[in-house]
Amino acid sequence: MAPPNGNDRDTSGTTRRSLLAGVAALGVLGAAGCSRVATASTKDGGDLLERLRAAGVVRLGIAGEIPFGYIDKNGELTGEAPELARVIFKRLGVDRVQPVPTEFGSLIPGLNSQQFDVVAAGMYVNPERCEQVIFSDPDYQMLDSFIVRKGNPLGLRDYKDVVEKKAKFATGTGYAEIAYAVEAGYEESDILIVPDQVAGLNAVEAGRVDVFAGTALTTREVVKKSAKAESTEPFKPLVDGEPHVDGGAFAFRPTETRLRDAFNKELAELKKSGELLRILKPFGFTEDEMTDLTAKELCGG
Question: What pTM was estimated for this model as a whole?
Answer without folding.
Answer: 0.77
